């Protein structure tokens, strides 16, 4: 790619050539089955050469979607390749051998239709430093620049980054690490402009919920019935389950899951604190607006309503499940 072709490190060790089979290392054994229509749409657009930025609230399922896209691309005669970054690791590499095999494939002449980077925004600060100083890959993350440099310009980039809001900067109680995430959209300019923006909503259909249960509770019979029951208990809308409560639900021990879904105390924790501990992803400000809308109060700001719809907190044309849903009760707990 032309915008990276001037990156020529002054020195670096020889890139090891791993045995084949590392492209799938660290990825799930099978497709999640979650949001299949969205995965199908993004995949076909990527194959056609459209670059896309995949975004959404932390915990909404971006990485699951990206891994499904990468698995499909690998299985489709390597029409799509990519790397999964891990922000918890010092070098950000979930699987260095994945980087090495991708590098050698592309260096050897393979031209993927699309190239995927999960958590792409998190690497930008380091990559800019590498480019300025022409540093070699004594830090393997710099190899990502070499991969980008040898990719054809016709290859679409499919990148993900987390969505946060400017309110984080204004609240001194929010940890610095979270407030820094506000700049992630600006970081994405590093990879070039002109990409379409795809917002992953913070809600799942009942079909998605069944797929999620199959991944986490594969030994549980009658998953369809369980998903319907969960949809009624947790969902804010009659046919959608909110990721607002999905993560704490899935953290419950498997043996207790089915009895616990009928106990609202299992979910009505301190929702205000949970927002900033990663259990609940939307901002309290957003949830207060959502409660007003669901209570029939007119909200004047079209921008606020648009954002709530983008993230699945309110859904145009959906049938509200009512004030007995646990999601609504937790929204009320935060808003009040």
Named CATH topology of the largest domain? Rossmann fold
Distance between the termini: 51 Å
Order of helices and strands: HEHEHEHHEHHHEEHHEHHHHHH
- What is the oligomeric state here? single chain
Detail the poorly predicted runs.
none
Largest sheet: 5 strands, parallel
**Structural class by helix and strand composition:** alpha/beta
Name the CATH architecture of the largest domain. Answer: 3-Layer(aba) Sandwich
- Sheet-strand content, in percent, reads 5-15%
User: What percent of the residues sit in helical stretches (DSSP H or I)?
Assistant: 40-55%
Can you count the beta strands?
7
What is the fold's blueprint, element by element?
Layout: H1 36-47, E1 52-57, H2 62-75, E2 80-84, H3 96-107, E3 114-118, H4 124-133, H5 143-150, E4 156-163, H6 167-170, H7 176-179, H8 184-187, E5 196-199, E6 203-205, H9 206-216, H10 223-234, E7 240-242, H11 243-250, H12 257-260, H13 271-275, H14 284-294, H15 302-310, H16 326-335
Parallel strand pairs: 1-4, 1-5, 2-3, 3-4
Antiparallel strand pairs: 6-7
Describe the 3D structure.
By secondary structure, the protein is an alpha/beta fold. The protein has 2 domains: 2-199, Rossmann fold; 203-335, no CATH class. The protein has helices at residues 36-47, 62-75, 96-107, 124-133, 143-150, 167-170, 176-179, 184-187, 206-216, 223-234, 243-250, 257-260, 271-275, 284-294, 302-310, 326-335, and strands spanning 52-57, 80-84, 114-118, 156-163, 196-199, 203-205, 240-242. Strands 2-3-4-1-5 form a 5-stranded parallel beta sheet. Strand 2, helix 3 (96-107) and strand 3 form a beta-alpha-beta unit. Helix 14 (284-294) crosses helix 16 (326-335). The chain is globular, with a radius of gyration of 21 Å. 37% of the residues are buried.
